[in-house]
Write a structure and sequence with these properties.
Length: 229
Amino acid sequence: MKNDNPVLVALDVPSREEALRLANTLRPHVGGFKVGLELFCSAGPAIAEEIGAGDVFLDLKFHDIPNTVRGASAAAARLGVKIFNVHCLGGSDMMRAAVEAAREQNPSTQVIGVTILTSHDAAQLRELGLHEEPAAAVRRLARMAREAGLDGVVCSPQEIAAVREECGPDFLLVTPGIRPANATTNDQKRILTPQKTLTAGADWLVIGRPITAAPNPLQAARDVLQNLG
Ligand code: C5P
C-alpha cells in the first residue's frame, strides 16, 4: 500500500475472478484493497496473495477468546496483509493477543479495531447492555484499543475528530462511509466526501460501491483521486 494514495477499494464481490478483474484494473489508481467476509468466504485466503498481500486490508473483524484470536492473527500476519482488524468488544486481553501474535509473525502488519458498528444506534447498544451514546462508546473503545497496543481503529467520518483527540496524531484511522459529492448514498447514513474525510484527519478512505458499481470503475477511481487534488 502506498500512503500517498489513501483510497482503499472495498472488493465486496462474490467471486475471485471479479475481484481480480477489479484489482488489476484499479491497481495503478488506488492505494490498496479491502477484502471482507464475502470475498474471503468465497475465494479463501489465497485471494490476498493473488491481489498482493501488501496491498490488502483484511476486514474479518476477529472477535473470540484471546487464544483463538491469537492464532487467527498470526495466520493473517503470515499472509502478509498490510492491515487486519479485530472487534474492540472482544476486550483488552483479546486485543493484546492479536497485536502480540501479529508482531511476532510480521512487524509490518498493522492491527486495527472496530469500535461500535455504524449499524448500531443507542437503542441497540442498550439492548446489548451498553448504556452510553454510540459516540461516547466509540471514544472509550478507541482509547482501550490504543492502550492495548493496536495501531488504529475503523471509524466513521463523523467520529474522526473525537478519536483523533482521544488517541493522538499517530493512531491510524481507516474510514468507510465515503461518498463523492455526485454519488448515491446506498445504505450508508453518516457520509462525507473523500476530500472532507481526508481534511478531517483520516489516513485511509474505504470506498466500495461508488467505484466498484460504477459503469466505469477506472474512471470513477480517477475522479475520486482528482477530487482529492
Ligand atoms: O460500498 P461502500 O462504499 O458503502 O463500502 C464500504 C465498505 O466499508 C463495506 O465493505 C462495508 O462493509 C465497510 N464498512 C462500513 N462501515 C463500517 C465498517 C465497515 O461501511 N462501520
